[in-house]
Amino acid sequence: MAPKRKTAPTVVASTVTDEDENIENVGKRARGKNPDEEETVAYEGSIESKITLAQQWKEGKDPTGYLMSEKLDGMRAYWTNGKLWTRTGKLIYAPDWFIRGLPDDEDLDGELFLGRQQFDACMSIARRMDASDNWRRLKYVVFDCPTAAGGIKTRLKRAEELLKGCGNEYAIIHPHTICKSQDELMTKLTEIQDLGGEGLMLRHPTAAHRGGRTPDLLKVKTFLDDEALVIDHEKGKGKYVGMVGSLICINKAGTRFKVGSGLTDEIRSYRTAPQIGQVITFKYFELTKDNVPRFPTYMRIRPDVDASVFPN
Fold first, then answer.
1. Catalytic annotation, residues
2. Domains and their CATH numbers in the chain
């Protein structure tokens, strides 16, 4: 039986500030709309309830039989009712030619992706409202068809059928392989990270789609660590008034950044906090194109590392 066609969602008009007005109007004109008319920007309903979120894979959890794929470092994009939406239900202003041919009656879940270590550039394109030609650099990498019944193998097959018939060169299926062992998982993780990738995803082969955070979807990645020189303290706010809010640091490349995560209440005391001129070890996810660590987290003081290795 053919799937029931969904009615378009009710959307809520946005209120923009004077500062945002110019780019808002540019975006409307680019899509052939009158800048004076109300713009629909928010999905009424819950995109968030449709989005599957991953739990962290823990060593010892047997990955055999799971579908394995690279974890993409892009912008999550959910296709429903003829539009792309962020994971929080905000409209993504994709050009008409970018979404042409995508299904009217079935949902897709995927990522707007520019390439490994291109997160900032991807976001700068995907978050704008002018539907610029820079979108030709992006791909919509699809890894699920949530409205299809069955496990991920069946849903991926359905997504492949939908994309094969749509004639859209920008929408592609994310490749998956069956994981044969934990050793294979670790080998593949090292391979992907050596290429600059973020990590891996594991999908339960037979579990039906469900929104929210679920053990049916697991992320596999490792954090990096490095040393940094503390050059100042940022004052705490709220419950941390009178304490250290974050450590202002530089790395060996001379990049300045803040480390606040990982500081316990005890460490945040000015008496016990890492002092200016001390070296700390922190863990982080990756470096941005500007050499800034993403999600830096304090680990410990490193008295064995001399401050002289850092730039003045």
1. 71
2. 20-220 (3.30.470.30), 224-309 (2.40.50.140)
